[in-house]
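Technical appendix A lists one of the benchmark inputs used to test multi-chain prediction within the project. The record comprises two sequence entries:
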Amino acid sequence: MSTADRLKNYVKAVSAVALGKAPAGRNLTVFPGDVFLVSYLRSGSTWTRFLFGNLVHSNEAVTFANVDRLVPSIYALPDRTLRSLPRVMKSHECFDPRYRRVIHLVRDPRDVAVSFYHYNLKTRVLPDGYPMEDFVVKWMNADIVPYADRLGTWEEHTLSWLRLRSNDPNYCLIRYEDLLANPTGELNKVVPLLGVEAAEQRILRAIELSSATQMRSMEATQSEQWVTTKDSRKDIPFVREAKAGGWRKQLPEESVRKIETAWGGLMRELGYALSASEQRPAAQVEKPYATR
Amino acid sequence: MRALRAAWSTLRGRQLAGRNATIYPDDVVITSYPRSGNTWTRFLIGNLIYQDEPTTFANIEARVPEIYFNPDHVMRRLPRPRILKSHEVFQPHYKRVIYIVRDPRDVAVSFYHHNLKAGNIADGYPMEDFIPRFIAAEFDYRWGNWAEHVTSWIALRENHPGFLLLRYEDMKKDPEGELARVAAFLEQCSFRKIDSSPQMLKRAVELSSPERMRELEKAQAKDWVLTKKTRQDKPFVRSAKAGGWKSTLSPQSVALLESAWGDLMKRMGYELAGVHATAASE
């Protein structure tokens, strides 16, 4: 880092703290009643925020312009602001013992890889034409971009929540794939944690208002108003396929093999069938310990 | 007011690093739940690596700094590879970790006294009332409870090459043997050459004995960031023993701890008192 850069960072850090503008992130003040939607990156958390927001707020439809107010991300706003907002929040953190009520969203890592590849093009982390094989190798080593690397690998991230909380009544695991296939059933599971009435009408409305078609048309007009997309390339969409299994067409065979070799045990535990013909034994996983 | 104070400390570069500390891939991080022998381990390692001058409470922060008491930019200037002290639960970016685990029944007793010293509980506060609060991680809740802490590291890192698991009790039984394991781990982490000959191991253990640490504490407690604002009538270096819980904890408290965390305790090699647990649940 050059002296000028260091000085710039210093001034930025001081003024962000002084003006109370530093996003909360890991420094978030956590209250016991807070509900967290946690997931690894590119696992459907934005869609799920729309679903949750539309479920909780029955008199206002979620848009990209208001999602940070209705279902705030801990990375978008300062701690001070978050205190006065609804406390169903989105987070990408690894296991944090302070989070007591957790809805954990997981997605097939082969699809996560494809989605994150495109997202890195959109955010200009990778240049057009960057080989996906090379990306996957670096991604599996958590060596792409600091904000993502900090979260650990997909496996570490997923295991950290699963092993610590899977016996906890205030923890709910949902798979992106199940949410796509049966949104009503999956939303019914999280309704108690969100603390809303499980009226069917309400759930159907939330699904309708959060459909991929709806979200794409909102992105077209609102992407400048959303902190996540406003500085990114506009020729690549944020709401991409919104499908499960896209990896079959897009992910090179070599990359599939690498992912399945490294994380096959956990993938099978989560119900993601491996494509490799030879079936590997499931990883030796200890039963989770009762922690509370 | 809070924002102003925070800005002022950022302005002076005094903001403590804590969990936002920069961690380099070659850093070795000594991690444990509080009151598990972390400070003793820092002394042992400090005395092993710096063989010129004994480690004291006055120089420990410059040798094996604690992330909660030092600003990031100060620690960034230390020679690499660094050895840092942390109490964090599983952190994916800690690539090389020395993890210390201690019998939670002893941790509970030690933590009780630590909270007396820190002024968090009053003299005479009943231990029976403390134990459930300890299990619920009411003190230092950002690190979770003992079981969450241990599980997070064991489930994610056990058997990884960058992870060394130490048990406080094994260290008490055979400090030189366990310190030799630490030295081997540090060397495998491409650390600078360490003279871990038997004499040097013996020297490090002697320079880190409870007697010596108590003496140092007496002279330096007011200078050390961890102890200077705490009650000076209570020692930081306490009994430094394993199994003290047997004479301190009531059967009810033991039963409470064992019914909450028994499986994990057994897995870590801590024999359960058992009988009491059944007696209490009847």
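Chain B touches chain A at residues 3-4, 6-7, 10-11, 19-20, 89-93, 135-137, 141-145, 147-149, 151-152, 155-156, 260-261, 263-264, 267 (CB under 8 Å). The CA atoms of residues 222 and 228 of chain B lie 4 Å apart. Comparable benchmark entries are summarised in Table A2.
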